[in-house]
Design brief:
three-stranded antiparallel sheet, alpha+beta, 89 residues, 3 strands, 13% strand, 2 helices
Length: 89
C-alpha cells in the first residue's frame, strides 16, 4: 500500500493512502503519521468488506480529531480527492 507523506505549513505531518479515498491523517512526527494512516487504512478496508455499498453513497471518508485545525495542505489534498475547492470545505 503506497503512503504519501507531506509536511503541513505548521510542522505537522500529513500521511495519505491515495488508493483509499479519504484515508489521510495528521501526525506530530513522520512516524506517528505513518502509523496512524496504516491503522485508518486497515479500518477502512475492514469496513468496506463488512458494508454493502450503494451507488448514492459517497466514496469518501475523512476523519479528524475533535477541535483539530485543518491546514492548507490537507485542505488541498481533500479538495483534490473530492473535486471541491478548498474554500468550500
Amino acid at each position: 500500500m503506497k503512503i504519501e507523506i507531506e509536511r503541513e505549513d505548521d510542522g505537522r505531518w500529513i500521511a495519505e493512502v491515495p488508493d483509499l479515498s479519504g484515508v489521510m491523517v495528521y501526525g506530530e512526527t513522520r512516524e506517528e503519521a505513518i502509523a496512524r494512516v496504516q491503522s485508518l487504512a486497515l479500518r477502512v478496508i475492514a469496513d468496506r468488506l463488512d458494508v454493502l455499498s450503494r451507488p448514492d453513497w459517497p466514496d469518501y471518508v475523512f476523519a479528524f480529531h475533535d477541535r483539530e485545525e485543518i491546514g492548507s495542505r490537507m485542505l488541498t489534498r481533500v479538495a483534490k480527492r473530492t473535486g471541491l475547492k478548498p474554500e468550500d470545505l
